[in-house]
Each structure stands twice: as structure tokens, then as C-alpha cells.
Amino acid sequence: MFSLRVFCSFVFLSLHAVSGMYDPDEVLDLPGMSFKPSYRQWSGYLKASSGKFLHYWFVTSQRDPVKDPVVLWLNGGPGCSSLDGFLSENGPFHVRDNGATLYENEFSWNKIANVLYIESPAGVGYSYSDDQKYQTNDNEVADNNYLALQSFFAKFPNFTHNEFFIFGESYGGIYAPTLSLRVATGGQLKVNFKGFAVGNGISSFALNDQSLIYFGNYHGLFGEQLWKDLNDNCCENGVCNFYNNSKKSCADVVLHAFNIIYNSGLNVYALYLDCAGGVQSQRAMTHLFRNFRKHWETNQIVDSTPSVQGVPPCINSTAQLNWLNRGDVRKALHIPDVLPAWDICSDVVGNQYHTIYETMKDIYVKLLAVGLRALVYNGDTDMACNFLGDQWFVEQLGQKASTQYQPWIYDKQIAGFYQQFGNITFLTVKGAGHMVPQWAPGPSLQMLQRFLSNKPY
Amino acid sequence: MFSLRVFCSFVFLSLHAVSGMYDPDEVLDLPGMSFKPSYRQWSGYLKASSGKFLHYWFVTSQRDPVKDPVVLWLNGGPGCSSLDGFLSENGPFHVRDNGATLYENEFSWNKIANVLYIESPAGVGYSYSDDQKYQTNDNEVADNNYLALQSFFAKFPNFTHNEFFIFGESYGGIYAPTLSLRVATGGQLKVNFKGFAVGNGISSFALNDQSLIYFGNYHGLFGEQLWKDLNDNCCENGVCNFYNNSKKSCADVVLHAFNIIYNSGLNVYALYLDCAGGVQSQRAMTHLFRNFRKHWETNQIVDSTPSVQGVPPCINSTAQLNWLNRGDVRKALHIPDVLPAWDICSDVVGNQYHTIYETMKDIYVKLLAVGLRALVYNGDTDMACNFLGDQWFVEQLGQKASTQYQPWIYDKQIAGFYQQFGNITFLTVKGAGHMVPQWAPGPSLQMLQRFLSNKPY
């Protein structure tokens, strides 16, 4: 009895020790939640540039919110919502298939960190712009995310002393380092910034596309003739260029290869998982697959299945969609009534998005030079951003290897491989696809814990 | 009522229509079986060469035993039992984890075929030799399997008219074609032989080892330095030889690579599945992994964990082992009391086994020349016999491609890829490991059905 009372007092103190929280945004209860959370949470808006408001959801750590780090989580697309990260990947609770009730996620990242989810840029999810103009680009997104962060820490000033980390997934491979550079050098925002991480990120378009051809062939997707055609048409003296080869014969055969990967019915985000809805439901998610889209738009060879609004191919997000669009859920999350329905990805944002950076190399070099810690991790069965492209990217940063490439262990099993290069680590998560925290939750929480505490994986 | 009576009569007639069955071997009931099978089964012994007796288990088809084909199933090793195929892969029932009770396998191959399982060679499982000498080789095994087949069809003469197919898995990649050649050209045995199939088989030691290096690298197991070392030490003018390179520097680095695959704790039979018992329980199964063993025996670099009798690494066969070794089960299967306990694999057989053939190429060419149908299929996440080695093997047989390399569909999902070369097909089963019918039961039954009926996959 005594120990229980001590424990309860401790939880109470922990939950309320952080003063200066922004009360109007606090989420006190949620439809479909039958359990009592051991953390506090807020949902509301962060002001970015003029008229732009980014929706955030912030959950404190279940361990020690005062001392635990703050982790920012950004999903990619461009145009996809970080609430997918919350409700399907690493958030403290997920939505049951019925779309109505919630269940706790044993491997939530807020077990050990205060986690901030921002829907970015404006136009994504419940984020919006007063003028409803949603054309944007890499630098503008970084600027707006930086402004939103300032707005966040103004609402929650006590967290400026916690260690701070930025995570991006997929196209977040561009959001995270570009934002990190502003945080590291911007001057305005005073936080205890320690590092950034990128999960199945796009780090270099050239390396991503180049490696994907090897990935496809050595995972059995191509066969002898296509592999021969790729080599005959795209390689000279043993050097192959599958990315921006000026020969039409090469571009045609690369398009054929990409068509198998993106358009045949495979789950591009997790090769060995089923495609939700079956092979017929497949469509190219053209926002991200840039080289493929480039060919596609000029050549029009690909069967142009009508685009399903905002749904990435082979992914079933019906449960989240149904739950987030309930009136009572919107109210609990402080979403204005005038905003349209939430969607997992926005074609309006995606289709008008302008990519500025071909590679993140220079930005990584700058970030490492100021002493930041970095982690590039990849579920190794993803084809949207395959592990090999990111492995090559890290290897080519010019950092000296400080460990061998070696296995890491979770629960007595090889969870993947990693290699340390000074302050940056490349790490694979074996058998996981694009959404690592969703498909390898246990290993992914261990990875987070090791990265945040700067320990070997 | 009427239709039910007709149906029951039909089942009764089907089950008993096949006269001339060998009564003493019939299995009438089995410990742990709570359901009534819709097929007949026999277990007993087939006489091979002098003093050698091979244990068989034969189950009739659940569809139409009179008309359905007879399929022979052989597991590999060498030294492993085909009852693993029965009880874990494609048999009509499997053993529950409790090791005591049985449950029906929805995707049993006897849904559409009469299936014969033979434990081969003598010394494996419940097969034995009177002199207890278990040294043998590829040709002797083929001879004995051929004699055993004669013994089988003498016991079950009515099945000589059914179409007949031979399947081998793993080292069965040598058993199946060598036996097929004897059946096709032997003259003694008169059966309606139509073709053979090999699942994750060893078809060429050179191609298996050569391809494994590429498989390992492009599945993220090696890292940059090892890949560079492999290329620097084993390749000249863009041509690599990882198999029998005479340079010690190459052999050393290949050994290092094989060590990661076989000895680091990965599940060599299914890269993305856990290793039963965790990384510590790992050991090299040296019977099959010949090149690795060759290095291992001469260099002694590998940590020589004591061999666990008969258990392949990362595989848990406790349930089968417990069930098959019960006295009442042995009695029901007509196993003589004097025989020792059943084990999934025999080190006595495996360690003394002499491999004669480096490649099955000549034998395949002969078998295709006499008009037989062939299927080489591979679960594409296996590293013991990786898909790429078998793909290259089929491509290099000199048969003209008659289809493109293309996906095949099971239940609205891409189940893998295949390509037809006249009478021989190469086919992958996506996401499955070494034991395809165990890890992709639905696709595997469809594959069987298409192969037996000579239809496109």
C-alpha cells in the first residue's frame, strides 16, 4: 500500500513537475481511449510564416519528462502527415482496425522521450495556410518548421533545457537535416540541440535510384534479360549510370525496371508484405518517386491508373482516417471546424512541391562539423528509399569509419547491421520496411534509446 | 440429405477404389489425431540394396486418388528426414507445439496428389541398414532410391498408371534429378513419369557459392569494406571468382563473408525470421555448406561450437521429435522396436556423405531432352541455397526462354516471379525461405497444382 502510494505520488509529481505548459492545447481525454495515460499531451497549432499554421501533437515522456530528451518527429511525402507516425508507428497509442477505439503501443517512443509530432508543411493533415496556397519547396519548409519550433518552445519554455533531437522519415530525409542546419546555426532558437536521425530517408536522388536497380535485381525482381539490358545500355567499362543516363535506350530500360518495382503490384514500402487491396489497387506514388515520375510524365508508358487521393500505394490507413475525422476527435485535438477532412497524404501539397536539393551531402558535412550526432537507419526491405542508397550516402560523406560493419542484437536476435563513422551511424533494421517503428517496434525503440544516450547499438 | 449421402458414398468409393494396396502398412489411427482423415495412409519399409530399408509414408489424394498424380517428396541434408517435409511443410497434418497433438494442414499437397515421403538414405530418420554402415554418395543414394521406388510400386501396383513426379528440397536438388534420370532411362520401373521439381536445391556448388556473395552484399550483410575486399581480392577485369579462387587472400575474405552468413546468428534458412534459441544457439550446418566447411576445416578460423546432434541451425523441431519418438506413434507407423530414436537430421549420415556431382547441369540437359517437365523453385529469402544461384543455373542450361521473367499471383498478391524456358521453369516464392511449403503454404500449393497440370503459374 505504501509503495503504491509512493509510486502514484511519483507519477503525479512527474506529470505535473513541468510547469509553464501551454494549457489551452492540453488534451484531457480522447474518444476511444479506455486507458489512463501516464503522460500529458497537447494538440494545437504552431505559427509558421505569415498565415501558415502547423498542427502539432506533443506527448511527454512516460519515464522522466523533466530530464528526458525532446524528439521531433517528421513524416515525409512530401505531403504526408506526421500523425501517421503517431498513430501507426511510434506514438503512445494506435487506432484499432474498427477506426473507433485506441490501444496502447508497448514500444512507443515516449517511453523514453518527450515526442513532438508536427504536420508539415501547411496543407498536410490538419495544418493549413489562410490563403490556401500550398506550393512550397525544401527551403521554405525548413524555414517554416524552424518558425514552428520557435512557436513550440515559446509555448513550452521549460523544454528548452532538455536535449533536443530531430527525426525525419522518408522525405523527412530532407526535412530533418535542412531544419537541423537552421537549429544548429540559426541563432534565434535557444535549445539544447544534440543531433538528428533519418529513417528510410531520401538522402541523394542519384544514389537512391542507382542503388534501387541493384536492390531490385538481387531481390529477384528482374530476371536475366532485363539485367543484361540494364548493363548493356547503362554501363561502360564497368561503370553504370542508371540515374540520369542521357542515352534513351538506358532511360527506357530503367523505366521498365522501375515499372516492375513501383507499378506491378509489389508493396514498394515493404517487399515481403502484402499490398493492401491486392495487386489491382497499386498506383505509383509519384511525389516521391521522382526519377520514375520524370520518365512517366514524358514517356507515358506506365498505365495511368487514376490516383487515389492521398493514399500511398499498398498502405491501408482507413482506421486512422476514420478516427481522426470524427467530430469529437477533432474537437479534442482542437482542430477548427472550418478545416477540411484529415488525409494521410495531400496530393495538393505533393504535386506542387518543388525539390531543391539533389543530395543532403553538404548539409550533413556541415552538421557533423559542428559536432552533432547523426543516425541514418533503414528498414532493409523497403524499396521507396532502399537501404543501399543510404548506406552509400553515409559511406561517401568522407567520415572515417570508427567501427566495423557489424550486427546489432535485440532480444537475442540479429536486428540488423550498423557501422559508426565518428558521430554518424548507418544502421539497418532487418526485415523492416519503410516505416521502421511500425514494422520493427521493439528493435526501433532500442535503437532510439541507444542513439539518444549515445551508446553502441 | 440425398446429396450428403451421394457425397459420402463418393468419398467412400474414392478411398477404397484403389485396390491392391499393401494392407500390412496401412496406418489406421494415430496418437494425437482428433480428426477423421479423408484419405488413406501407409507407413512401412521399402527394400533398397542388400540389407538397406528405407522408411516411407504414403498418403492418398484428398481429391481423386485414382486419377491424381503420385508425387515423391525427398528432403535433403544430406542426412535430413523427409518426415520434416511431411510434418512441417506439405503433409496433411502437422504436430502442435505441445508435441502431442496433430492439426490439419489446409494447404497439404495431398489435397491434389498422392504423396509419397521416403526417408533417404539409410541411416536417416527411421530408415536403416542391417550393417549400420552409413557412408554413401550421390550415385548410391540414387540407386537405392530407385530400388525403393520399385519396392513401393510393387506394393502399390495400381499407382503405376498415375502420372508420377519427383520433388526434392535442398540437397534433394541432387537426389531428385539423379533419381529422375534412373526412372526416365532405367527400364526396370514402369511408371508414368512426367517430371521433377527442386525447391531451394543445390544445383551447382559453384553457382550457389558465387551468388551467395552477391546475395549477402545486396541484402545488407557485409558493408563497404568487406565488399571492397571481396572485389579487390577475388575479381580481375570485372570477373569475380568467389568459389574456388586459388588466391589465399580471396579465400580468406570469402571465409569472412560466409562466416557472417552462416555463423553470426542469422537464420540461414530464412533471413528475416528469428533464429530459434537466439544468436547463441547458432552453429554451422557443415554437411551442406561445403565451401564454408572446406575453409573451416583447413583454416579453423571459425569458432568451433560443439555440434548439436542432428539439429539444423535456427530450426526448432522439438515438437516433431517428441511426437515421432513416442512408443505409440512408432507402433502406429510400424517402426521396429530395435531402431534408435528418430532425429530430424543424422550427423552420422551427413558427415560421411560423399558428394560426387559439382553440378546437375548434364543431368538436367538429359532429362529435358527426353521431354520431362521440370520446375526449379526458390523461396527468395533463403541463404542455404539462395534463389540467385538456381536462377543462374537454369538460365545457363541453354534452354530458350519461352516467357519473360514475370510475376505470378496468389490470392491477389504477387507471390513471386517466374520464367519458362521450354519445359523447365525457374520460379521464386517471395518472402519464403528454404522450406517453401512451410513458410508459403498457399502459394506453394498453387505452384504444385500449376506444375502438375502443366498450366502457367
From TrEMBL, chains A, B:
EC numbers: 3.4.16.-
GO biological process, one term: proteolysis
Pfam family name, one: Peptidase_S10
Gene3D superfamilies, sorted: alpha/beta hydrolase
Signal peptide residue numbers: 1-20
The entry's keywords: Carboxypeptidase, Hydrolase, Protease, Signal
Enzyme class: hydrolase
InterPro entries, alphabetized: AB_hydrolase_fold (IPR029058), Peptidase_S10 (IPR001563), Ser_caboxypep_his_AS (IPR033124), Ser_caboxypep_ser_AS (IPR018202)
Molecular functions (GO terms): serine-type carboxypeptidase activity
Similarity remark: Belongs to the peptidase S10 family.
Protein name as annotated: Carboxypeptidase
